[in-house]
Amino acid sequence: MWRGDGRQRTSLLLCRSMQTLSEADGSAVQEIEATGAKIAAARDAIGEVIYGQEQVIDQTLVTVLAGGHALLVGVPGLAKTLLVHTMGHVLGLDDKRVQFTPDLMPADILGSEVLEESDQGHRSFRFIKGPVFCQLLMADEINRASPRTQSALLQAMQEKQVTVAGVRYELPAPFHVLATQNPLEQEGTYPLPEAQLDRFLMQIDVNYPDLESERRMLLSTTGETVAAARAAMTVEDLMAAQRLVRRVPVGEKVVNAILELVRAARPEEGASEEVERHVAWGPGPRASQSLMLAVRARALIDGRFSPSIEDVTALAAPVLRHRMALNFSARAEGVTVSGVIDRLCRNIG
């Protein structure tokens, strides 16, 4: 996805889509145009604070528009925490942050019941909500907490509710988890289980910025004033955009490409020789659902009426790489998950 003047870019791409999609009614086109302009404004607002991470910003926006959760993986100092906080402010979301540590307990995330005694001597339990009761939860260094604590987010991420002492509590809408993970520091960390990883719509790799972006960041963040995030959307705008994503039509070729790609990544499905030889386990049906929503959201961000196969190949890696595992022989031969996905993408279409 390319950048520039967000509104001009959205209008240009929308015109091209309208020329080829005569079945689109006027009201739908107007809604896509208006929503695309708001998303472009949000992207520009985030870019005023986060430098040199355009692809990361776009993929995070795709995740939120698709109604999912994202795992941000990168070395320290790449503005992962700042990105989440900035996105919460720009999108008008109530955001909270939890620093995951080895001694963190599930109650520190979900909340707990406390015993209270009234003036009349009657005792009763009262539930005190934890930080998970927000619209955007930042799980900082999520792999530093124990598996028991990590599992506290499973129900919240999938069902948008939590159960404490047998009572269910609904979470605010919308609800998103943006977790960060450091790929280098392994001491004192716990690998995320497959069930936890599968609940993240995307794994977004955060890399170093290019020279010009780092120069701009250096000059902008060490002066007397530092750029602050500005609101560009409301919660109502975001939820309307999320509903619109699910109404974006998807052509049969794109649906077939998604199914072909996901199923080809499973060694049990009679896949290619490379997959049979190197992949220990592949993506499940949730990967297909995630990729379908992600390509719709990417098309909406670009102001297009429907996604293309290019969207599938562009989002294949962040949607699939945390849902696949290589066997020992593949790691010994230097094979990577990203390399396997790239080769699978060349065969779809």
From TrEMBL:
It holds the Pfam family AAA_lid_2. InterPro entries: ATPase_AAA-3, CbbQ/NirQ/NorQ/GpvN, ChlI/MoxR_AAA_lid, P-loop_NTPase. Keywords: ATP-binding, Nucleotide-binding. The keyword Signal does not apply. GO terms for molecular function: ATP binding; ATP hydrolysis activity. Coiled coil: none annotated. Residues 275-340 form the ChlI/MoxR AAA lid domain. PANTHER family: MAGNESIUM-CHELATASE SUBUNIT CHLD, MOXR FAMILY PROTEIN. Belongs to the MoxR family. This is ATPase associated with various cellular activities AAA_3. It comes from Parvibaculum lavamentivorans (strain DS-1 / DSM 13023 / NCIMB 13966). The lineage of its organism: Bacteria, Pseudomonadati, Pseudomonadota, Alphaproteobacteria, Hyphomicrobiales.
